[in-house]
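hey so u asked for the seq, here:
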Amino acid sequence: MSNTFSRIVSVALFVLGAAFVTESGRISESAYGSNVGPNLFPMGLGIVLMLLCVRLFYETFRYPKEEGAPSVKLDHKRFLMILGAALLYAMLLQPLGYLITTFAFLAFSFQVMEKGTLWKSLAIAAAFAFGVYLLFVVVLEGSLPGLPVWFR
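ran it, structure tokens below
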């Protein structure tokens, strides 16, 4: 990637991170008096994104000069497939529930990114979806969209 492109991306993503931090302050705090409210996670993500962008911007000055750098071939087909799957994931999360949609999205995305053995993709997708569900719902006593009525 070129230095100029990396700098532009780092500034744009820094602004996005700042928007996350700003807008997360508008989310209502927990009604139960807990210090951990629904605004903590988006605020944390925004801060991490901003810090990573500062580092990327700093590191662009350490890159070698752009002299006949090889052009990077973009893979539009894979990008569009995963973008479509992400949009479908967002639309189906509530009606189908977290477990089904997350498992399907991850399994599909793993296969699009790198064609490999299907059973490995399915195992990793299942472990991640169920692991996060158990951690968040059982251990932390949070809530995620459950299974659909017809599946129970």
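The CA atoms of residues 77 and 152 lie 36 Å apart. The two ends are 49 Å apart (CA to CA).
lmk if thats what u needed
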